[in-house]
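Researcher: I'm preparing a figure for a lab meeting and need a structural model of a single chain. I don't have an experimental structure, so a prediction will have to do for now. The sequence is pasted below. Please return the structure as tokens so I can convert it later.
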Amino acid sequence: MARIGGDFWWAIKDRRGRRTGTVTDRYPQSMWRNLDIKACLLAPGPSGPVATARYEHLREGVQECEARILIEGALTNDEQRKTLGEELATRCQTLLDERQRCLWKARGLSDEEIESAAIKRITNNVERRLARGRGASSGHKWFLSSGWQERTEKLFGVAGEVAAKLSKD
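Model: Understood. Here is the structure written out token by token.
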């Protein structure tokens, strides 16, 4: 996926067993120069690499993406949507819509802007504003106290219901 920090460790040993180089020293062709990612996801621990907070955030994000992908896949497949039933499909769509609105709000958009953006299917103007991060600090402050843990719990709960329904077939 990217350099996560493991290639910066002194892992290459010489004939005496001494650590003399990194993975990037062994494979210099893998250096990307201007594309190198300098943020490490691993840090030194007492007996080797340990996960950093960045790594844990990435892991949590990937898990949430996988749950969302499962739900969206079931909603967009006619046969699977029928298997879910209308009540669960409606709850799934409501949950996904709420999470999307929260993402926009966390980027600093107001409720009025979110409603107008939803109606216009996200105009270029709103996308440019999100890309610039206008209002991002206020959005970040909102997000911290917005109940994100409960939203994540609901996401995994609904994804579990979807997986259970689909596995019965």
